[in-house]
């Protein structure tokens, strides 16, 4: 288990891919972002140590987020591999009209309640 500071432990590290989608054209960019995720999900699931991938969509602020979690001890190898298929997925997002603010972030996760 990792420790960031006293009392702040973690056992999971996650990589988040996020963007903003447009409500224009009956939310077409959101539909296309979901299709792009479906095209890479099998590759995500093949990452050594894969725990889960969550998708978060906010209709108010137009967020589309994909969060993949791995055990902390497995995360470094995925990072060294460039978080594959991250580059492929981000390229797919960049090609979608209405998608903006494409970003990535790494953070730790730890349950605090059952």
Would you kindly provide a written description of the structure presented here, covering whatever features stand out?
This protein is of the alpha+beta class and 114 residues long. It has a single domain (11-107), classed as Alpha-Beta Plaits (2-Layer Sandwich), CATH 3.30.70.100. 35% of the residues lie in helices and 37% in strands. The protein has 3 helices and 6 strands; from the N terminus they run E-E-E-H-E-E-H-H-E. The chain has helices at residues 24-45, 72-80, 86-94, and strands spanning 2-5, 8-10, 12-20, 52-58, 63-71, 100-109. The strands form 2 sheets. The protein has a 4-stranded antiparallel sheet with strand order 4-5-3-6. The protein has a two-stranded antiparallel sheet with strand order 1-2. A hairpin with a 4-residue loop joins strand 4 and strand 5. The model has no long low-confidence stretch (mean pLDDT 97).
Quick take:
By secondary structure, the chain is α+β, with helices and mostly antiparallel strands.
């Amino acid at each position: 288990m990792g420790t960031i500071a006293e009392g702040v432990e973690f056992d999971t590290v996650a990589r988040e891919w996020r963007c903003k989608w447009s409500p224009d054209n009956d939310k077409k960019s959101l539909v296309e972002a979901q299709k792009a995720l479906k095209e890479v999900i099998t590759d995500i699931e093949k990452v050594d140590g894969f725990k889960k991938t969550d998708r978060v969509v906010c209709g108010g602020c137009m967020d589309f987020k994909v969060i993949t979690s791995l055990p902390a001890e497995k995360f470094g190898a995925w990072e060294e591999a460039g978080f594959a298929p991250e580059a492929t997925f981000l390229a797919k997002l960049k090609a979608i009209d209405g998608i903006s603010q494409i970003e990535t972030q790494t953070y730790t996760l730890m349950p605090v309640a059952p």
